[in-house]
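Our consortium's second objective concerns turning raw sequence data into structural hypotheses that experimental partners can test. To show how far this objective has progressed, the report includes one record in full. It was chosen at random from the queue rather than selected for favorable results. The single chain below, 753 residues long, was entered without modification.
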Amino acid sequence: MAVTPSRSEQRGALAISRRALIAGAAVAGTGLVLGFRVFYPPYEDPPTDAHEDSQLANAFLRITPDGSVTVISKHVEWGMGVHTALAMLIAEELDADWSQVRVESAPAAPEIYRNLALGTQGTGGSTAAREAFVQYRQAGATARAMLVEAAARRWGVPASEIEVEKSVVMHRSSGHSAGFGELATEAARLRIPSDVPLKPAGRFTLIGTGGVRRIDGRPKTDGSAVFAIDVKLPGMLTALVARPPRFGATVRAFDDSKARKVPGVRHVVRVSTGVAVLADTFWAAHRGREALEVRWDESSAERRGTDEIAAEYRALLDQPGAVARRDGDVFRALDRAARIVSATYEFPYLANAPMEPVTAVVRLEPDRCEIWVGDGGVERVQERAAAMLGLPRERVFIHSVYAGGSFGRRTESAVEAVEIAKAIGGAAPVRLIWTREDDIRCGPFRPMFMHRVTAGLDASGRLIAWHHRIVGQSIMAGASEWLVNGVDLVSVAGAINMPYDIPNILVELHSPTNGVPVGTWRGNGNNHTAYAIECTLDEVARAARREPVELRRTLLARDPASKQIDEFAAPEWFRQAGFARHPRDLRVVELAAQRAGWGTPLAPGRGRGIAFQFSFGSSVAQVAEVTVRKDGSFSVDRIVCAIDCGIAIHPDIVRAQVEGGVGWGLSAALHGEITLRDGFVAQSNFHDYPVLRMNEMPKVEVHIVPSTDPPSAAGEATVPPVAPAVANALFAATGAHPYTLPFGRRRARAGTI
């Protein structure tokens, strides 16, 4: 069965005219460079008056005379396996020998390497595999067709009789064969074929097999992988920035006399984020920063602690908010309900704390700027650097390197590094490093959120009303495309598209502002909305004397297909981002329950809980098993995950992503919490912002639903169900839900957590 792209994907990724594909000789005049033009904006038909000269060529594939196949990845590799996945798409259609496939990161060229789902050159929102799925396969299929045609002409045989296998083009009856490298130059001179068919899924030899080595596996194992912190340039200085102790404070004055006396310190300069110390080594820069004397202007600083902010949020929970979703008449239904279930949930600020400290390297020359960074916002970095320096955008060159986690955090560090390099007049290349303390104390953080869910049941125990009020800072306040009717779509993700069949639903949002910087976090809004929804559902099940899986099965049996959701989420980019309903939800719930042995007895003190979430285009259900000890401590013993993420390009990578997502979500649920006292962040490193340890990691079982749908998210989509699955297991074992996260430091006892 063929993997059939959606209509929007056909319009966006395959909006290719007869002459839109391009081929040409490599730089040296030999080889094949292949790409194709894509109409923009994404998911729209090309203008009728479009001319070839107005479209740009996308180069995704290069074949050189030595037979090597280089795939140009427009997505940055953060550890999620995207380089491998994109290379597999091309290699599959090309029938290339995987051992000869290489990957290079694309340069900053938004007109060429635009993310079709986001409309900008960048990696994020778990869009990489889905938006590139058809595009990269098309490049590989077209290159294969051209190599076959070149061979047919050379040998004087019909192209239909030619086969390709592991980078060898062959005509079996005549005995002719040639490698890709031998044919590349001839292929580059041919007319580009149109409407080249893609392989049906039944003929895949790479996609879905799981036997392909990861492109980034060896370099990350042997230490040859280059991250920004590994970049070394002649004369390079290391920069650390003294940052304000309270958010919103600015530099009033500073004395750098002692700092300049530290051996190795070369420059001390004021920048918009504080005072930068540049030195020959990290340690010298660190000592120089410690020797600085800075007076801060805190007249506009955030001085409140999280307790005070939380009190404001609790007050807002009692007030109507901006309407995000309205189905039926929820208040009338609640008035008529035979039973009411209500719960309030509190979620703390969270740090990302990536494995690799936030780092960027900049080399500034009079007419150009080079930036080494592992950040998904390639276009943002280029545009902001160009504006800061007064350079044409095309004179800012981005070298996308590996990143040990990005989370949208490295854009600001890259821009900050550019500002520092400018402040010293480009006297030396600059490597900016945020220490772990900088990273945890300075943010941005996942916003603190509060939820109140009130559910109404009729006399038969049927769920007839759902009132969901959410309070939390907006991370998309400056992005109008993510704001609809005053509602931040990210804040309410998972709530506005809740798939359960409930006739009366009202979702409201408050987006208060304060001085605490907030930003993206894995799973974004879904990671707190899923908790509130799934935990409340288990309380509804208990109130209705129904079994939790059976309740979800009933609520998912019929697609609510809310007209209001359809109207609210009308933009195509919104649907592609993974907020629209998907029909495969019930299947993953039943699969997770089955594989977990749902309904089989557990020993005393043990509990089993389930949670489901659709996010980023994927349906995910997880079952958690916990053991509660006599002293109230508990362990998470097992997580069974069922995921429908479309076709699994590389099943082993999908499993690794799921396991990583489980660990990420569990780490936050057990330990994650950023607190402020009088405006000062209390945490600073892993001793007081702990992350999950190996002995806390449960056994994770991953079950991938076979699919021929285009791929969607794996790792990010598996974060939201983790915490509610564990909470529901604790509820089953103790009779109480943790309403405030994190819950790992609290004791779980019967009736209280």
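The partners drew two points from this record. Confidence is low (pLDDT under 50) at residues 1-23, 25-29, 36-58, 561-581. The longest helix spans residues 128-155. Both points have been shared with the crystallography group to help prioritize constructs.
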